[in-house]
Amino acid sequence: MTIPLSYYLVLSGIVFLTGVVGVLLRRNIIIILLSVELMLNATNINFVAFSQYFHDVAGQVFVFFALTVAAAEVAVGLAIIIALYRAKSTINIDEFQMLKW
Amino acid sequence: MEQVFFFYFAFVIAAASVLVVAVRNPIYSAVALLIMFFHVAGLYVTLHAEFLAAVQIIVYAGAILVLYLFVVMLLNLRQDDRYHRQWPMAAAVGLTLVIEAVILTAMKGWTTPVIAAGTETTVGGTGNTEAIGDVLYSTYLFPFEVASLILLVAMIGAIILAKKDLGEPTEL
């Protein structure tokens, strides 16, 4: 294996950081969910890189489970977005302040 | 050769993920995410995880992203989505993480490297899909069943959430 593990970790760190900044920066709920997908993919890259590095297939199994959770998160999240849009006909997060104190 | 592939995939993944966050139009954002998913799948192939590459394309690009595009087109959004007011906080969190990453990368040589120990089924011995199947249906059988339960709950929850109105809209 010619590429060192740290390269994969740096790449995954960049993608995860982009996701965090996206969650904090954007006001569109759909883009926020897309940023969460970015973060999940960053962890998946980490898992697969470590799985290759340690010659252990368990990391890939965990990526499989992370994919399952991502699919469930997308289904429920998009259903919530549709319900929110029905209630207020916008998906700008500045408009949803009912839980703020 | 391997390095050329890695740097190509890494560059496109990083650039596409920045585009996902930076682009104003949600549809362009979703398309950038699609490009990123395909290149992550390519990266998995170079890491000898062929089964996960296929699953990545089928599940992420095929199912999840189509769902996103459906909702984006269903809601018919305006494009004037400016960045959030809390961008100083986002910059602070981002800078902290960047500094931490730089420090961790700089002191990489200080610790002794962990020796790779091939414990369980080795990757790419008999075939990636066979290896994953062996482990998934023996060692991780219970988490596998729990994952199916999670999918069932998510399906029912999504149907109920999207079907019913959230009470009556009190303040519009």
Task: Report on this structure.
Chain A has 101 residues and is mainly α. Chain A is built from three helices and no strands. Chain A has helices at 5-25, 29-54, 58-88. In chain A, helix 2 (29-54) runs antiparallel to helix 3 (58-88). The longest helix of chain A has 31 residues, at 58-88. Helix content of chain B is 70%, strand content 0%. The longest helix of chain B is centred in the middle third of the chain and has 26 residues, at 50-75. The model of chain B has no long low-confidence stretch (mean pLDDT 81). Chains A and B meet through helix 1, helix 2 and helix 3 of A and helix 1, helix 2, helix 3, helix 4 and helix 5 of B.
- Beta strand count of chain A: 0
Q: Spell out the helices and strands of chain B N to C.
A: HHHHHH
Sequence of secondary-structure elements of chain A: HHH
CATH topology of chain A: Helix Hairpins
Q: What is the C-alpha radius of gyration of chain B, as a whole number of Å?
A: 21 Å
Poorly predicted sequence stretches spanning 5 or more consecutive residues of chain A: none
Look at the helices and sheets of chain A and give the structural class. mainly alpha
Sequence-ordered SSE layout with sheet pairings:
The complex is a heterodimer of chains A (101) and B (172).
Chain A: H1 5-25, H2 29-54, H3 58-88
Helix pairs in contact in A: 1-2, 2-3
Chain B: H1 2-22, H2 26-46, H3 50-75, H4 87-106, H5 128-136, H6 141-163
